[in-house]
Amino acid sequence: MKMTRQLTLLAALAVYAAPELALALDLHGFKPDEIAVWAAAVEGGQPLAAHRADAAVNPASTMKLLTGWAALNRLGPDYRWKTALLSAAPLRGDALSGDLYWLGGGDPRFDNGNLLSLLYNLRLRGVRQLDGKLLLDKRAFSRLASADDFDGDAGKAFVVGPDTHLTNLKVAWLTFFNDGHGARVALDPPLPGVNLQVDVKSGGDEACPDVRRFVAIRNDGRHVSVTGSVPAACDGARAYVNVLEHDEFAGQDFAALWHALGGSGPLTVAQGRAPDNARELAVWQSQPLAVALADINKYSNNTMARTLFLTLGKEAGGGDTAAAAERALREQLAQRRIDDANLLELENGSGLSRRERVSVRLLGEVLLDAARGPYAGEFLASLPIASEDGTLKKRFADLGPRLRMKTGTLRDVKALAGYWQAADGRRLAIVAIVNSPRAAEMGKALDAVVGDLVQAFDPAAARSGANR
């Protein structure tokens, strides 16, 4: 009890170092140097709380807020990515007598449905046979930003890197069947570079909330083995696997879907730049940036966030895509008069980084600017809703949907950043970031700190959350 009072006193002293602040934080068991907190009303006034507000901390995935805010302001919420098929070769009958170029635009949401639409448009043009090579034109990104020190997570979907030809997030689906013809598993799409070995039997009558409870999946990127049992309730269930490298995946996926549409070819897949005289044969325009941003923030998708960061660089120009992305982001901060001195490292804009460092005050000022700006609706709509969806679906049930926050989790990092909206419309921007070897075990304490800030700003918060 004595130690708790001491820690609370230390936090209070840290807050009262700025005389305009009135809230003494209860750190709920955190040591003062383990957590950084900042909160302020969107409608104006002095910060409600600021504890280690200018310390450089690893933000984990709350860094996605900075990238998304910059992208909305620079590109606009209706920005769309373009993917095209081009060729300078003549069409003889239904055969394209030469190479086909796939110009990748770095669309973070480009999936097999989009690829099928692109290929269907090529078939509508009358093309059935590809007599030449499929050449991947990767000019959109001259350099990819790194995500170092994640070798131990190789093969996991969350570390898939960005790419101009990112397709289906570079994952294939295992579809499980048990329909009276025996238990079996199919790879979708059927990639020839992936060897699938299946040893499954029919299971019992159990419910199937997740097929992975009943099967073991081993995957090294080229060989996937599935063993176990498939209950009848798992018929049609799916699980994804991260396989192949980007160019291999894109080329084999293209060929599989092209053949499914009755096409033949191409002869092989390689990289190549389309000649100036190449004509567009088929085009796919993505859904708007605002749609991608919702996927990025609600489900904390690192691959998509890194791709969005590079899109900033592509549109800014200047040769080095990753360097141009950082420059564009810092320019946005300068235009909004937000000091970037505490943005000490910007590796890839997604928070999948051991090196990225930012202050909670800087992130908080970005939240204020976003809430006051022309794209406030799109920005707010991208955030997980407490107790309802995304990464907050099972958190903050006591506060409910008036709380929207981006989460962040890495080894030794836990973070929350977002907004509380009171019943009278007032809004509180909140950033709370833990950097500590104890971070993984302190999730409830972090939630409690955020809850205290909400209650201090809006004493009716708990009742509002319960009543929705």
How would you describe what is shown here?
The chain has 468 residues and is α+β, with helices and mostly antiparallel strands. It folds into 2 domains: 2-78 and 290-467, DD-peptidase/beta-lactamase superfamily (Beta-lactamase, 3-Layer(aba) Sandwich); 82-166 and 244-280, D-tyrosyl-trna(Tyr) Deacylase, Chain: A, CATH 3.50.80. 29% of the residues lie in helices and 23% in strands. Helix 2 (63-75) runs parallel beside helix 6 and helix 2 runs parallel beside helix 8. The protein is globular and about 75 Å long. It starts with a helix and ends with a helix. The model is unreliable at 1-22 (pLDDT under 50). Keywords: Carboxypeptidase, Hydrolase, Protease, Signal. InterPro entries: Beta-lactam/transpept-like (IPR012338), Peptidase_S13 (IPR000667). It holds the Pfam family Peptidase_S13.
Low-confidence parts lasting 5 or more residues at pLDDT below 50?
Answer: 1-22
Structural class by SSE content: alpha+beta
- The strand count comes to 19
Helix content: 25-40%
Biggest sheet, strands in spatial order?
A: 2-1-19-18-17
Number of helical runs? 11
Label the overall shape. globular
- The assigned CATH architecture of the largest domain is 3-Layer(aba) Sandwich
